[in-house]
């Protein structure tokens, strides 16, 4: 969404492509799970009267829109990618196949995972946790508009305190810390997957976070 209130901001997509290309220079393998809230949110749609299952599938299609836009920007920037989707749309993407995704990573390609899990009632956060675990990733990096995890919403509360580190157990028990949904956090906790929450709008943060520098909040 970038600086827009809705839809896709081309300038921000190109900025992301530059950030990803810069990270790729150090040889990091990267799987990108894209959300779709800038176009359509399933939960919001269901509250407006759309059948929840239908709304969730619409939300999953929105993530594929974003995946296509990001793939186009990356390919135009010289980064070889493969867009894989959780349900088959063979004209525009490959179906997600674990072994094939791993092979793409071994061949130095960036994998973009769209379509969530392919199932309704499951969030993109959970999809990210699942893909991270399936593909043997070392950590999940959640790119947001804030520089980490706070005790309260920092946009609304001036007294919000930032956490440098946090345990997944604490994140799971707190109703005030909205990092990821509980299913995603629980998956990470059960399988020892670390999560790093950082501000993607700060140039260079993606590379710093991936290299283990002090950026955002580390949850483990």
Descriptive notes:
The strands form three sheets. A four-stranded parallel β-sheet has the order 1-4-2-3, with helices on both faces. α1 (10-24) packs across α3 and α5 packs parallel to α7. It is built from eight helices and ten strands. The chain has 220 residues and is α/β, with parallel strands linked by helices. The two termini are 29 Å apart. It folds into two domains: 1-122, Carbamate kinase (3-Layer(aba) Sandwich), CATH 3.40.1160; 138-220, 3-Layer(aba) Sandwich (Carbamate kinase).
Question: What's this entry about, in short?
Answer:
This protein has helices spanning 10-24, 42-47, 52-76, 98-106, 124-134, 168-173, 182-191, 205-210; strands at 31-33, 81-85, 94-95, 110-114, 139-144, 149-150, 162-163, 165-166, 194-199, 217-219. The protein has 220 residues and is of the alpha/beta class.
């Amino acid at each position: 969404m970038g600086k827009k209130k809705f839809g896709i901001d081309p300038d921000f997509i190109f900025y992301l492509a530059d950030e990803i290309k810069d990270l790729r220079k150090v040889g990091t393998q990267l799987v990108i799970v894209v959300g779709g809230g800038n176009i359509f949110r399933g939960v919001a749609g269901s509250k407006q009267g759309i059948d929840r299952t239908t709304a969730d599938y619409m939300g999953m299609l929105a993530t594929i829109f974003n995946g296509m836009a990001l793939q186009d920007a990356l390919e135009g920037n010289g980064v070889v990618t493969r867009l894989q989707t959780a349900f088959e749309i063979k004209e525009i993407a490959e179906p997600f196949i674990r072994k094939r995704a791993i092979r793409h990573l071994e061949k130095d390609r960036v994998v973009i995972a769209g379509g969530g899990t392919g199932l309704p009632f499951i969030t993109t956060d959970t999809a990210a946790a699942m893909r991270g675990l399936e593909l043997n990733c070392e950590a999940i990096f959640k790119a947001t508009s804030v520089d980490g995890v706070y005790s309260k919403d920092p946009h609304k509360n001036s007294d919000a305190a930032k956490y440098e580190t946090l345990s997944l157990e604490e994140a799971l028990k707190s109703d005030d810390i909205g990092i990821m949904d509980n299913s995603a956090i629980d998956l990470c906790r059960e399988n020892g997957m670390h999560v790093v929450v950082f501000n993607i709008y700060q140039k260079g943060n993606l590379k710093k976070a991936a290299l283990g520098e002090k950026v955002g909040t580390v949850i483990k």
